[in-house]
Amino acid sequence: MRTLQFKNGDMMPNLGLGTWKSAPSEVFNAVVEAIKVGYRHIDCAFIYENEAEIGNALQKVIKDGIVKREELWITSKLWNNAHRKDQVLPAIQHTLKDLQLDYLDLYLIHWPIAFHDGVTYPKSGSDFISLDDIPIAETWQGMETVAKQGLTRHIGVSNFSIKKIKDLLTTASIRPEVNQLELHPLLQQNDMLDYCDQENIYLTAYSPLGSMDRNPAFKAADEPNLFEHPVIVEIARAHQCSTAQVLIRWAMQRGTAVIPKSVNANRIRQNFETYQIQLSEEAMDQIAALDKHYRFLNGGIWAQPGSSYTLANLWDEG
Ligand code: A2P
To answer: Percent of the chain beyond pLDDT 90?
Structure first.
């Protein structure tokens, strides 16, 4: 299976190219290469600061006749400084202009975290606004408005807990159709997967390879390396594929979408060739046993002193 089907019949390819951390100077070639190889899903966000270069790449592949707009699935995300209802329209318009598109396939609330106007990255607790002051329900009304205007075909959330999705469903008139979150063998989130299955919400797995290219300042000293995990290495050997392919295929076989990031042509191709691999049931069982609820991105950057956010109220855990 290569696609996840939405209620209106739209199909989201389950493998997308991630673009977080892709430098503006590299992302143009990465996107063109990916689309030539066969990717039809590109995952973007305002905050990745590379949507204009992605837009140039999309223009090129469409103009060159490699792909038609309607064959692509383009996701983007609302940044934390545009959570007021009337800020969502200008935010998506900005993204659409950069991406040189008339509509998105999917627009997500990037984090259940709000900043004051004009704050891109918070420097202190006073840069944050609490969810009591801008409730997610208000932001969602803005999301519904842009969906009704046809600026995005689907809307969803990212980094939301089950509790936050449940709360949102009590007020939403258009239901969220996707939750994008960190998922990999060390953070399997089975409760989330089961809950979202019941609610017809798809999960998209970000950082499926462990995002080793993150800024070292945000990495734990003892951070595990998924590529070197002995169980993953052994499964890769047995299936005659790379460890990255094991990680990507595992996400697909669980019924989630997955968005590995790469700016390297060989790795972009290798990751796409994951479609040719099938993990055995035994391998899936072995990976199921690896869960540690370990987050590479624990959200600690949002839990600044003086802000209303804590790790406990971000993830609704503990
Ligand atoms: P690069 O962009 O140079 O290919 P994640 O998707 O979890 O954020 O991980 C992205 C990181 O994984 C990047 O450092 C990326 O490097 C690297 N990466 C992507 N695909 C592969 C692959 N097939 N093998 C090894 N590393 C990969």
So the answer is: 96
Length of the chain: 318
Q: How many Å lie between the centroid of ligand 1 and the Cα of residue 209?
A: 7
What are the pLDDT digits (tens) for 189-210?
Answer: 999 999 999 999 999 999 999 9
Q: Is 39 a catalytic residue?
A: no
From the CB of residue 295, how many other CB atoms can be counted at a distance below 10 Å? 17
Q: Are 42 and 31 in contact (CB under 8 A)?
A: yes
Q: What is the C-alpha to C-alpha distance for residues 207 and 136, in angstroms, rounded to an integer?
A: 24
Classify residue 273 as exposed, middle or buried by CB count within 10 Å of its CB (0-12, 13-18, 19+): middle
d(CA 93, CA 185): 36
The count of other CB atoms within 10 Å of the CB of residue 13 is 17
pLDDT, tens digit, for every residue of 133-172? Answer: 999 999 999 999 999 999 999 999 999 999 999 999 999 9
Q: Is 191 left (phi over 0), alpha (psi -120 to 50) or beta?
A: alpha
**Does the pTM exceed 0.90?**
yes
Tell whether ligand 1 has an atom less than 6 A from the beta carbon of residue 271: yes
258 lines ligand 1 (CB under 6 A): no
Domain extents in the chain: 3-315
CATH 3.20.20.100 fits 3-315, yes or no: yes
